[in-house]
Write a structure and sequence with these properties.
The chain is α+β, with helices and mostly antiparallel strands. Helices cover about 20% and strands about 35% of the residues. The strands form two sheets. Strands 1, 2, 3, 4, 5, 6 and 9 form a seven-stranded antiparallel β-sheet that branches. A four-stranded antiparallel β-sheet has the order 8-7-10-11, with helices on one face.
Length: about 170
């Protein structure tokens, strides 16, 4: 058992030393069963304790649907437990000083419904998708039934959302 843990730690160190330095993940896309395209899952907020002592994990996939629209599929947990995302959903503060508010889609994905638990889907209109392509996200506020949670996006991850939407953008 100890050998497995050591091998895992060695692989983690190797990935850190040899991985891409400009981005926290490498942009990759795949076709969806519905005929759209989506990126692989990326962590915008790592599962580490913040100044408030709580762990907020925020993972997402940028999606271009078969009808040409854009969306975000989001996974969130708080202290490693499911987080119930409610309306108004997410507020994404941008580096240009503006912000975008995203409401969870009714129906969501993975059969969870309108933002229930840690899976939520957000449909983006073209103007919002373009705005997110042009400006990096620096802070996220998530509406939860216990209030709102706000976290700063670490500097090296601030461009992930705009890169992901760019990766699935129609040419």
């Amino acid at each position: 058992m100890k050998g497995i843990k050591l091998a895992g730690m060695a692989m983690s160190l190797l990935m850190i030393w040899t991985g891409p330095k400009a981005s926290a993940w490498e942009i990759g896309t795949r076709r969806t069963a519905e005929g759209g395209e989506e990126t692989k899952t990326a962590e915008l907020l790592p599962n580490r304790k913040g100044e408030d002592g709580r762990r907020l994990l925020f993972k997402f996939r940028a999606v271009r649907y078969a009808d040409g629209g854009y969306g975000l599929k989001v996974y969130t947990t708080l202290d490693n437990k499911a987080l119930y995302v409610i309306v108004p959903g997410l507020t994404l503060e941008l580096e240009d000083g503006g912000s975008v508010v995203l409401r969870p889609e009714a129906g969501g994905f993975d059969h969870w419904g309108a933002g229930e638990w840690y899976n939520a889907e957000f449909r983006l209109d073209d103007a919002v998708a373009e705005r997110l392509r042009e400006s990096d996200v620096v802070r996220i506020t998530i509406a939860d039934r216990d209030g709102a949670l706000t976290k700063e996006v670490p500097g090296r991850r601030q461009g992930l959302l705009s890169e992901a939407i760019e990766a699935v953008a129609e040419e």
